[in-house]
Structures are given as C-alpha cells and as structure tokens.
Amino acid sequence: MTSASFGKRRVAVWDGPLRLFHWSLVALIGFGWWSGEQGLDWMDAHMLAGQAVLGLVAFRLLWGLWGSRHARFADFLAGPRRVVAELRGLLRGRPEPHLGHGPAGGWAVMLILLLVGAQAFTGLFASDDILTDGPLVGTLPGDIESFLNSAHYTLFDVLLWVVGLHVAAVVVVYPLLAREDLVRPMITGWKRLASAATGRPERFGWGVVLRGLLLMVACLAAVYGGIAAAG
After folding, report:
1. What domains can you pick out in the chain, each with its CATH number?
2. I need a labelling partner for 205 at 20 to 30 A (CA). Which of 38, 72, 194, 211 fits?
3. Mean pLDDT of 156-170
4. What is the CB-side half-sphere exposure of residue 182 using CA atoms within 13 A?
5. Molecular function (GO) terms listed (predicted)?
C-alpha cells in the first residue's frame, strides 16, 4: 500500500492517558528548560517539574506493558532488520503504514524516554555548590554525585539534539516522504487510513482511561513521596 491510499477510514490508535502523557511531557520539558535558565527564583519549580517528568516516564514504562494495544512495547519494538526495511521503504517512497509506531519510531520513543528519564534522575543530585541543591544531594558518595551532576548538564545538550531530530522527523520527514500526519493523531487519538495497516484497530473504553489515569497518579505520587522520604 502506498502513501496515496491514506485518508479515508478513521481508526482509533492512541488512548487518552498516552496522549495526556505525551503532551504533559512536552510541556514539562519546555518548562524545565525555561525555568532552568531563570536562576534561583524558579529553581524550586524547575526541580518539581523534573520530578514530575520522572513520574511520567515511570508511567510510560508501565503503560508500555499494560496499556492499550498500540501503547505497548510489544506492538512497535522490532529488530534491526525491520528498522532498516522501514527506513529503506520511506526513502524509496514506498513507506509501510502502521497503525501505531513503526519500528524506527518505536526505538526513537525508547531513546527519548531513556534520555528524559536520565536527565530528570541526574537532576536529583545536581548542585551549583553555592545556593541550589537537588533534593537528593548528600545521599550518595561525593564522587558519584559529582558524576551525576556533570551528566545532568551534558545530557541536556544531547536531549536537545535528539528532540530536535524527533520533531523534524514528525513535522517534516514523515509528512513529506510518507504523506502521513503524525501530530493530529496524537491530539485526537485517531488516524485516517484507506485500508488496514500493520496492526489491528483499537477500541477504547472508560476502563482504559480510568486505569491509565490511576496509574499515572500512582506513579507521580510514588516519585514525589519516595524523593521526599529519601531526602
């Protein structure tokens, strides 16, 4: 099936909790970047945002095991051959459509989760050695905390590049080469396909939404509570 066959049948793909996670993470990363540049007055909010990011990453990892079909890692993580085949087809103008993430997009998701989680985690131990300390500074040996502190600043530069490439792929590459809008479905939860793509359509009930929201709240509470107790 070619990209020209897209655009006729409306299919549910992304559940509500996953979309809430996605856009909340986007907002928190942006806020974390901005607040981190504002100095001491915004540092408490910066650290709270980082802890929220940790809670959201924990939710996404668990939702990747117990969430709706296309949110699960088993639905989109694949070996290198499938990743290469997908990219080759995209470059040749014969993209393979997927209801959820394709193999390449799936690994991009995992990379971003890893980097965002590591960035937020290292921030717990970050310090300017003057006025601002992360909530867990002093709980680990000094050499380990020094390494995590340095990693917090280095990882952010890497994260900016990876997020930039991800945005470029979503906003420019896929719409241009695959004729596929990836942004709208992450807002509405629906894709438009002319015929069946790889995977089966999803149906969402209130049970999925409630389970996802409860899990998200539980992950956020566990992170905030755990950090408060450890600090």
Report:
1. 3-230 (1.20.950.20)
2. 194
3. 93
4. 20
5. electron transfer activity; heme binding
